[in-house]
Design goal:
Blueprint: H1 4-21, E1 23-24, E2 29-30, E3 34-35, E4 41-42, E5 46-47, H2 48-56, H3 62-71, E6 82-83, E7 96-97, H4 99-112, H5 115-132, E8 139-140, H6 157-171, E9 174-176, E10 181-183
Antiparallel strand pairs: 1-2, 3-4, 5-6, 7-8, 9-10
């Protein structure tokens, strides 16, 4: 089996590659992916879950993380999965807010100390849950309604889990460690 040191070297190499190849300095966030075979291009799109994970897993250093959380595009009803939207593509990942992704964004915002982004995330998640009386899988980013999404489900576990994680981790200050439970 690979050693812990080997895993740490792979993680550091991946962190460096992401920061070198995926950072879009002009937009202040990471590109969604690199595409092309011979002439590789960085996608200009932001992808909210990936952006949040770079903060939560320490890929973005603290200064970049603060910039990043303030630059992730957020609409009236939350942070869309991807931005900008592709015209003519129905809402699912495109033109959609997923509460579980919004939850990761909130956790990343809390890690950077961005209270405004945390509060907006709570508003996004609880607005939808209150209006639809369920933790729906996703909703349309441009109008905040679940009607019109390509695929959807009520009582979606990952939406509910994100909601509960915000209560535990942000409101109550509970941090789950490998061998302990911390309350701050």
């Amino acid at each position: 089996f690979p050693s812990h040191d080997n895993h740490m070297q792979v993680a550091q190499s991946l962190r460096q590659a992401i920061n070198k190849n995926m950072w879009n300095a002009g937009n202040g966030y990471y590109g969604q992916f690199i595409y092309g075979r011979n002439s590789k291009l960085l996608s200009p799109k932001s992808e909210t879950l990936g952006e949040a994970l770079t903060i939560l897993f320490g890929i973005a250093d603290p200064a970049r993380a603060k910039q990043l959380i303030s630059r992730i595009p957020v609409g009236d009803f939350g942070a869309p999965c991807v931005y900008p939207q592709i015209p003519g593509i129905p809402p699912y990942h495109n033109n959609a807010v997923w509460p579980f992704v919004q939850s990761y964004y909130a956790l990343a915002a809390a890690k950077t100390g961005n209270e405004q982004a945390v509060l907006a995330s709570f508003g996004s998640i609880y607005r939808a849950a209150a209006l639809f009386a369920t933790n729906t899988e996703n909703y349309v980013a441009s109008n905040g309604d679940f009607a019109g999404t390509q695929i959807n489900s009520s009582n979606m576990l990952w939406s509910l889990s994100g909601n509960i994680a915000l209560v535990h981790k942000i409101l109550f200050g509970i941090q789950f460690e490998s061998h302990s439970l911390l309350v701050s």
